[in-house]
Design brief:
The structure is a single chain. The strands form four sheets. Strands 1, 2, 3, 4, 5, 18, 19, 20 and 21 form a nine-stranded mixed β-sheet that branches. A six-stranded parallel β-sheet has the order 9-10-11-12-13-17, with helices on both faces. Strands 6-7-8 form a three-stranded parallel β-sheet, with helices on one face. The protein folds into two domains: about 300 residues, Metal-dependent hydrolases (TIM Barrel); about 50 residues, 2-Layer Sandwich (Dna Ligase, domain 1). Helices cover about 30% and strands about 20% of the residues. The two termini are about 35 Å apart. Helix 4 packs across helix 5 and helix 9 crosses helix 10. Strand 7, helix 3 and strand 8 form a beta-alpha-beta unit. It has about 475 residues and is α/β, with parallel strands linked by helices. The chain is globular. The protein is built from 14 helices and 21 strands. Zinc ion binds next to loops. The site of zinc ion has 5 residues, from loops.
Length: about 475
């Protein structure tokens, strides 16, 4: 028996949550062909991995790398942390289908800095991913704000019946072409102007395809309870599975509220198809004029178009230098993004420890001073929260990053080390794995990641991308599950 390569003597953590076991993993072409004791196998390449863990490559269910697949095809901010598959198109923003580019909301510039990076159909976006092949696999949701820009003249209004029909037609077409669900973002304009009824209609269209409704909810602060109720209403009325993105309880006044929100999610999950993800950080990141500065202990400027030299500075210091208040400083920095310290560590830990929560980075790669989550999310969970804080076992943490998102979004053949499955793999050192990125120095590769493989080809090794780009556009190939 012969394989293209064999990873020898590793602790295999297979992604299901099962305890690790010692063994070998053999790969030929893009598939795992054998696991266990493969002493009698030969291979074109032997990879010694004693003392290391081999796990399925991580799946990041919530990123904003829609355009980065083309502008940063090595996707180093993902592969450096062991991520092999990303899900784009979140928070209501996708770069396909765009039928009226002149009408796009400015918020879309956060994910597509080049206005030419948008696509008239989802099929065109899918084809370009297949043609250009980034280093990682990518699946995509269709954003509600993007649909609105296509179908509506006045984005500040609720959609008319005719406009909503057109949005649903475009969504239906995109889902037929392979998009894996719809994302809404009623927290942001122009999605904010939508009624619950609009959200329900989009959910109905997604449900017809057996796909998910994924949402950056209308509120994650003072009205997070009402926002959760609205999301559950959408699920109930549309029959669509709903997924709460980057669940958090933002704002000093709302610290501790996860003691209420998690039991709400738990109760709804017993009745209907509900899921959630979260990031392992007490700071969030979004547009600087989101209003979040009013609830934050500290704000760092991530990016400012008129003042790029101020990226990384504290907003309060800049306001003082300019002899103005925070509002005045924000006005002068726009368009801009910020990093907001608005969560309590106890909420972050409680949400992450909840048995149904998967891990996401919510990353946006733009600017010179991004949130460290862009580069460091997954190693941070495996280092800080597994090894140091002991929030859950390493096997459980890996499950949250692999089989859970694969099963949730219907990405068949991914997220497990199993014979016949795709060879998306990461080899890491459980004793040293940690994020390299910090709030002060956010563009840094992780520690303890040895090698990363996508579809059987090595994309990252010992701190550097290899230059291989074996990533593919992924369709939903398995039913959506509650996980
Ligand atoms: Zn979001």
């Amino acid at each position: 028996m012969h394989a293209d390569f064999i990873i020898r003597g590793a602790d295999i953590i297979d992604g299901t949550g099962a305890p690790r076991r010692k063994g070998d993993v053999a790969v030929s072409d893009d598939r795992i062909v054998a696991t266990g004791d493969l002493t009698h196998w030969t291979a074109g390449r032997e990879i010694e991995a004693k003392g290391r863990v081999v796990a399925p490559g991580f799946i990041d269910p919530h990123v904003h790398h829609d355009a980065a697949l083309f502008t940063h095809p090595d996707m180093e901010f993902m592969t450096n942390q062991g991520v092999t598959t990303v899900i784009n198109g979140n928070c209501g923003f996708s770069i396909a289908p765009v039928t009226r580019p002149e009408n796009l909301p400015i918020q879309l510039r956060m994910i597509a800095s080049d206005p030419a990076l948008n696509f008239p159909t989802y099929a065109a976006y899918h084809k370009r991913i297949a043609d250009e092949a980034p280093a990682v696999n990518a699946a995509c949701l269709i954003g509600q704000s993007t649909l609105r820009a296509n179908a509506m003249d006045d984005l500040e209004q609720a959609a008319t019946a005719a406009e909503l029909t057109e949005m649903c037609r475009l969504l239906d077409e995109s889902l037929t072409e392979g998009a894996i669900g719809v994302s809404t973002g009623p927290f942001y304009p122009p999605s904010r102007a939508s009624t619950t009824e609009e959200l329900i209609e989009l959910g109905r269209t997604a449900h017809k395809h057996g796909k998910l409704y994924v949402t950056h909810m209308r509120d994650e602060g003072d009205r997070v309870i009402e926002a959760l109720e609205e999301t559950f209403t959408v699920g109930r009325e549309s029959c669509c599975g709903v997924h709460v993105s980057h669940h958090k309880c933002a704002g000093l006044a709302n610290h501790g509220l996860s003691e209420t929100t998690l039991p709400m999610i738990d109760a709804e999950m017993k009745l209907r198809n509900v899921g959630l993800d979260t990031t392992p950080w007490v700071a969030s990141s979004t547009i600087l004029n989101s209003g979040r500065h009013r609830q934050a202990e500290r704000v760092i400027i991530a990016e400012s178009a008129p003042h790029p030299e101020l990226a990384g500075r504290d907003l309060a210091d800049v306001a003082r230098d300019w002899n103005t208040d925070l509002e005045g400083a924000i006005e002068r920095l726009l368009p801009a993004t910020g990093i907001f310290f608005i969560m309590a560590e106890e909420d972050v830990q409680r949400i992450m420890a909840y048995e149904h929560t998967m891990i996401c980075s919510d990353g946006m790669p733009s600017g010179s001073h991004p949130h460290p989550r862009v580069w460091g999310t997954f190693p941070r969970v495996l280092g800080r929260y597994v090894r140091d804080v002991n929030l859950f076992t390493l096997e459980e943490a890996v499950r949250r990053m692999t089989s859970m998102p694969a099963d949730r979004f219907g990405l068949g053949g991914r997220g497990r080390i199993a014979v016949g499955g795709f060879a998306d793999l990461v080899i890491f050192d459980p004793a040293t794995i940690a994020e390299g990125a910090t709030f002060e120095n956010p563009i840094q590769p992780a520690h303890g990641i040895d090698r990363v493989f996508v579809n059987g080809r090595e994309v990252f090794a010992f701190g550097k991308p290899t230059g291989n780009r074996p990533g593919r556009p992924l369709n939903q190939t398995a039913p959506v599950q509650v996980v």
